[in-house]
Amino acid sequence: MTACRKFRKQFSAWLDGELPSKKLVTLSGHLAICAACRRELAALEALGPALSRLEVAPPPTCLASRIVTTARRQQAERASGQSVRLWLAHMQSWPWGFRAAATVALIVVILYFGQLTSTRGWLPGSQGKHNTMITATSAAEGLEWFAPAPPGSLLSGYLAMAGQTLPSDGSHR
Fold first, then answer.
1. In angstroms, rounded to a whole number, what is the distance separating the alpha carbons of residues 114 and 108?
2. Do residues 53 and 20 lie in contact, with contact meaning Cβ atoms separated by under 8 Å?
3. 10 and 19 Cβ atoms separated by less than 8 Å
4. Where are the chain's structural domains?
5. pLDDT at 49
6. pTM above threshold 0.85
7. DSSP for residue 141
8. At residue 172, does pLDDT exceed 50?
9. What is the spatial distance between Cα 110 and Cα 4, in angstroms, rounded to a whole number?
10. Phi-psi bin for 104: left (phi > 0), alpha (psi -120 to 50), beta?
11. In the 8-state DSSP scheme, what is residue 37?
């Protein structure tokens, strides 16, 4: 039965004459031994002529004006900056995993460009904008606002890597 499901997905391509020859031979072999798939394919083949006899409904008379109006509105939104707000509103409908990934990507981009434009690097041993060497002490400057760093946190790991510790009593502030 699971094999039938795989073959039934190919029926549309079979009917349209778009099935590659290798798959055509495989599907033909399956149809030779499977009566259920033959019946379903026959029903689909009969559906085509029945659909072609249906009368095609004319498009609504206002369709062209609705398309033009929508295009003009979108162009005006782009020009006024509303498209960013609409994009952010649309982003709220994304699953939380996509929103989290987009947020992380944005943070990485901001940090990367901040590193490019900063006067000094962020990590010990990196070169700053003016070829100043970053030391372990200067790399940890400004992090005292986050102390005390909880054990096992990213900050405590960074401080350990930079060779710094922050007093836990808050006397550094």
1. 10
2. no
3. yes
4. 2-52, 65-117, 135-165
5. 84
6. no
7. T
8. no
9. 51
10. alpha
11. H
**Token digits for 170?**
């808050």
Q: Does residue 12 contact residue 41 with C-beta atoms inside 8 Å?
A: no
Give the rounded distance of the alpha carbon of 95 from its chain centre: 10
- Token digits of residue 148: 């005390």
First to last CA, the chain: 71
Rounded-to-integer distance, Cα 71 and Cα 99, Å: 28
Phi, psi of 62, rounded to the nearest 5 degrees: -90, 5
Tokens linked to 110 = 């901001």
What is the DSSP secondary-structure string of 75-135? HHHHHHTHHHHHHHHHHTTS-HHHHHHHHHHHHHHHHHHHHHHSSS-SSTT-B-TTSPBPP
Lookup: tokens for 86:
């609409």
Is the pLDDT reported for residue 95 higher than 60? Answer: yes
